[in-house]
Amino acid sequence: MGTVSQDAINQFKALMDQVEEPLKRTYQTVHQGYQAETLARFLKAREWNVTKAHKMLLDCLNWRVHNEIDNILMKPIVPTDLYRAVRDSHLIGMSGYSREGLPVFAHGVGLSTYDKASVHYYMQSHIQINEYRDRIVLPTASKKYGRPITTGVKVLDMSGLKLSALNQIKMVTLISTIDDLNYPEKTHTYYIVNAPYVFSACWKVVKPLLQERTRKKIQVLSGNGRDELLKIMDYASLPHFCKREGSGSSRHSGYANDNCFSLDHPFHQQLYNYVKQKSLESEPSQPIKQGSFHVDLPEPAVEGMEIAKTIESQMHNFEKRNGVSGPLNGLKINDDSDHRTTHCP
Rounded mean pLDDT of the chain? Predict the structure, then answer.
């Protein structure tokens, strides 16, 4: 880390040392003992401008206090069938670790529907996964590997992407905004796999709209990305949709324990049991009640809205040109013709 970066972290730390309760308590929950790494994440998100990063972190801490985020891991989504419905329609899970110890999170972008529960349940579930990652998964990995591990990798499965995905852009934008504002720079690399042609068409126009630091993190892999991903992780840590010999995926795997989206997967079982246990510890004499944990939904950033509108426009144009309204997974990215990996600059 350069001198300029270290100076910025030192200035930022001096400002945060002045924070008082209740922000101080939730700040400790955020950094989990890795204060320098946390400050660096917020500085990166604001181009190393200490003043802007300080405001961003204070806004995040106030959001956490106002919405009682520190308590969200004590609020299970019940009954289990409701949470299973959330898992079946917001496909996300953790499949393992990279060889460097970074947790591998998988996202079924193409097949997620967000149509089985209210927006509040989806936000509650997503934030719980974020908090469990930051409070349990990453600190455990840091202790195991003997060094700070504060980021992970994401594998985004575009299988089954349809033009009807336009209906989900609002939900995806809300989730992205929550992450951008309150969990910045938590992803080391994004790997995109099983991408249909429509994604390629959208990517060409969306890519220039992204900030450079984001573009550098994104790699579009050929087919299901298996060969490239095996360079950074063992076979056991591959998401289930990357383990097939050819490209393509499905919502469900043949084995529940292998499908990292399923509630039956060990990661989701551990998370769900952890939340239920914390709930019983906090209110041992009270029955667990059904009800979503409401979080203030943010106004999407201008950049996010511009990207969403661009995607919508491109997909409509694609539909007009091709008369396509069903799944687009059968159409390959042009770059796949020579089986090379397409890396973003």
Answer: 85
Give the side-chain half-sphere CA count within 13 A for 149. 23
Tokens describing residue 218: 């994104």
pLDDT, tens only, 307-316: 666 666 666 6
The candidate with the shortest Cα–Cα distance to 292, out of 91, 88, 125, 73, is 125
Domains annotated on the chain, with CATH: 3-66 (1.10.8), 74-274+302-343 (3.40.525.10)
pLDDT at residue 337 in the model? 30
If pLDDT is split at 50, 70 and 90, which confidence band does 17 have?
very high
User: 90 Cβ partners below 8 Å, 6+ apart?
Assistant: 112, 114, 122, 125, 126
DSSP 98: B
Structure tokens at 27: 């700040």
- Give the CA diameter of the chain: 63
- Strand 103-108 and strand 218-220: pairing? unpaired
Q: Contact at 8 Å (CB) between 89 and 117?
A: yes
Q: What's the half-sphere exposure (Cβ side, CA atoms, 13 Å) at 219? A: 17
